[in-house]
Write a structure and sequence with these properties.
Layout (H helix, E strand, L loop, with lengths): L10 H5 L3 H7 L2 E2 L17 H11 L6 E7 L1 E2 L11 E2 L5 H20 L4 E9 L7 H14 L1 E2 L6 E6 L6 H9 L4 E7 L3 H6 L6 H13 L4 E8 L6 H14 L3 E6 L21 H17 L3 E4 L2 E3 L4 H8 L3 E3 L2 E3 L5 E5 L4 E4 L2 E5 L3 H9 L5 E6 L2 H16 L1 E3 H8 L3 H4 L4 H9 L3 E3 L3 E4 L7 H6 L13 E2 L2
Parallel strand pairs: 2-5, 2-15, 3-4, 5-6, 5-7, 7-8, 8-9, 9-10
Antiparallel strand pairs: 1-22, 10-12, 11-12, 13-14, 16-17, 17-18, 19-21, 20-21
The protein binds iron/sulfur cluster.
The site of iron/sulfur cluster has 10 residues, from loops.
Length: about 475
Amino acid sequence: MMNSLSVVPTQQEATGSNVDLIAKYSTQGPRYTSYPTALQFSDQFTTANYEQYLDAARIDSAPLSLYVHIPFCRRLCYYCGCNKIVTKKSGVGREYLDHIAIEIDLLSKHIGNTRHVSQLHFGGGTPTYLDDAELTELIHLLASHFNFDDNQEREYSIEIDPRTVTPDRLALLRGLGFNRLSFGIQDTDPQVQKAINRVQRTEQIIELVGAARAYRFSSISFDLIYGLPLQTYESLNKTLDDVIALLPDRISLYHYAHMPTRFAPQRAIERQTLPDSYEKLAMLRIANERLIAAGYIYIGMDHFVRPDDELARSQKDGHLQRNFQGYSTSLAPDVLGIGVSAISSIGDCYAQNSKDIADYYSKLEAGQLPVDKGLTKTKEDQIRAYVIMELACNLRVSTQIFDNKFNIPFWEKFADTQPKLAEMQRDGLVIIDQEDISITEQGRMMLRNVCMVFDQYLSDQTERYSQTV
Ligand code: SF4
C-alpha cells in the first residue's frame, strides 16, 4: 500500500466506469510474442531438428530478421525478470564475442548469406555493456556473414541503458548502421529509481534523446513500468510529463509483476512499498488517458505509438506482426536468434539457445549450435497461432479468410469458444458478426484475455504468466 498519495482518486474515478470489467478480466496470461509460448518448448527438439529448418530456409527469398542477445549488466535492477548476468569482470565481453563468432559462422553455413537482413535487434541484458570496439567487431562479424540491407526502410535497433551511453556512443551506433533506439526509462522519480536500484538522471535522458534526433535515428522508443515500489500518482504523472515532453515515437508501458519466489532480484523490494491492485489500476488508467490525450494510439499489448509510426500504419493495413521483441512490421517472417538464451523462429519451428552460459559456450566449443529446446508447430498450433496473431496484431480475425485459408469453417472449428466470446461481446470487448470477430476500443485493454480463448495450452500454467490487465 502506498502512503504518499496526495490526490487520491475514488475507486470509480481511478478505474472509470469499467472497474468491474477490469476486475473480472484481471488474470495471468501470456503476452503472445509467440504461439505456442516458450513454456511449451521441449528438449525433445534437438540441434539436428533446428539445422533442418535452417537448411530449408536457405532457399527462401523473404527478408530475414536477426536478434542478438547480450546478457551482461553492470548493476542489478531489483524489478528484473530478464535473463541476464550481472558482472563487472573485465574480459567477459571478449569471451562472449569469441563464442558468438562461432555461432554466427555455424548459422550462416546452414542458412546461407543471400537473404536480406531487413531487421536487426540487439537486446539484453544490456547490449551497450560491450565497449565501442566490441560493438564494432560484432557488427562487422554479422555483416560479413549475412546480407545486410542498405535500404532506408530497414529497421536496425538497439536497447539503450541510458547509464551506459553518451552522445558520442550514439554517434558510433548510428555509424554502425543502427537507426532505431529503445531507451529503458521505467520511471523518472529519484525515490522510485533508488527503490529499484536504477538511478539515472532525467537531464541525461534529455541530452541523449536530443543527440539521437541530431544523428537522425528514425525511431525512438521508451520503456516505462507502472506498479513499482514508492510509485505514486504524482510521481507517475511527473514521469509522464517528462516522457511526453520528449515525444518518443513508441512507448511500452509494462505492469510490474512482483514474483519474488520466481525472480530472486525482486526479493530486495519490500512488498509494503508497492502500490496495491486498486492503485495500480488507477495508474494504468492515468497513463492510458494521458498518453492518448498526448496523441498516442494504443495498439494493444502494452504498446502506444504515434499515429504516423509504421506500427500504427501496419495495424491499420492489417499487416502487423508479433515476435519475441514485441510488435513488428511485416518486413521479415523468420527471426534468427543469436546469443545465450536467444529464441529463433524459422519456418514452423521455434528454437531456444541454452540459458546457461557455460553450456552455451561448451556446445559452441564442440562445434555445435547451442540449441537447448524448441518445438515444431503442429497443424493445430498453426491454426490457433493464426487466429491469436490476427487478434493480437490487427485487432480482428476474418472468419471468411480463415475458412478459405484452412479449408475448415471457423465456427465449426471453434464451436467451444462461442459461450466465452458471447460473454465478451456482452461485456463490450469484441463484436462478432457474419464476417469477423473484431476487438472494440474497450477490448484493446483486455486483448490478452480475448487471445487466451483460442489458446489450447493454458489450463495448468496461468500462474507462470504476468497479469493481463
Ligand atoms: S532490467 Fe535490464 S538492465 Fe536491469 S538488470 Fe535486468 S536486464 Fe539488466
